[in-house]
Backbone:
């Protein structure tokens, strides 16, 4: 049987980008635009892959239509032209108004600190400085800095936060043909596996995750994500979320 490391070697390559939301961030040369497009792409990454890609492509087309880079497009508030205060669906349960709130929140962050990295790094350092005995997770720090009415962001303390943890994989992991490794201040050994449906299914089939007493797969929670991340650290020391490629690649190529 092929090992997890061999599976990761097989799927972590430039071909992975072709049908993955991560491909959009590679279109841009400037770091500030890469992380903005990555954040947009990650937070729209749920549902059918074809629909995910088409809606991210639609937003990228807005940048091109206005002849602006993503940073300038958001700073200048061009998103107001495309996302009115309407309850009409833009993508699945996300309305045009939800997208408007999302981009307005990004605009506020970018105006305040000039980049997502500068903003979240400062908030992370403050969270560590004033933390209680409770463990601090970066995806939760990110979520806490968006208004609760921002529907695209997951706020639950027990949530696996798949989309934000995928974004963090893109930002932190280096020496990868997929992940950009832009944020040098955060350790990749502290990343949490994004619990995609394919990842959960394969982790259960390979007994990386135990089934519940009733014989079912565990639910996608932060507890489960941490459990799987710890297990993957045995196979990928210091870089546990590299296992995402092995499990996701195996799962998506079976379907």
Residues:
């Amino acid at each position: 049987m092929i090992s997890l490391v061999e599976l990761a070697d097989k799927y972590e390559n430039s071909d992975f980008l072709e049908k993955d939301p991560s491909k959009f961030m590679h279109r841009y040369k400037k770091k500030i635009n890469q992380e903005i497009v990555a954040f947009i792409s990650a937070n729209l990454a749920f549902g059918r892959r074809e629909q995910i890609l088409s809606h991210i492509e639609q937003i990228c087309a807005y940048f091109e239509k206005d002849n602006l880079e993503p940073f300038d497009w958001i700073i200048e508030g061009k998103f107001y032209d495309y996302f009115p205060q309407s309850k009409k669906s833009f993508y699945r349960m996300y309305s045009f108004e939800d997208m408007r709130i999302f981009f307005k929140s990004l605009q506020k962050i970018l105006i305040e600190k000039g980049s997502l990295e500068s903003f979240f790094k400062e908030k992370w350092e403050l969270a560590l400085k004033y933390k209680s005995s409770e463990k601090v997770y970066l995806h939760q720090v990110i979520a806490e800095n968006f208004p609760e009415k921002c529907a695209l962001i997951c706020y639950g303390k027990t949530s696996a936060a798949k989309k934000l943890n995928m974004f963090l994989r893109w930002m932190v992991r280096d020496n990868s043909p997929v992940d950009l490794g832009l944020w040098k201040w955060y350790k990749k050994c502290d990343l949490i596996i994004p619990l995609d449906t394919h990842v959960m299914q394969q982790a259960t089939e390979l007994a990386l995750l135990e089934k519940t007493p009733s014989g079912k797969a565990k639910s996608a929670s932060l507890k489960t994500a941490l459990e799987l991340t710890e297990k993957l650290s045995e196979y990928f020391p210091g870089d546990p979320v590299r296992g995402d490629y092995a499990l996701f690649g195996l799962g998506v190529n079976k379907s």
Q: What stands out?
A: The chain has twelve helices and two strands.
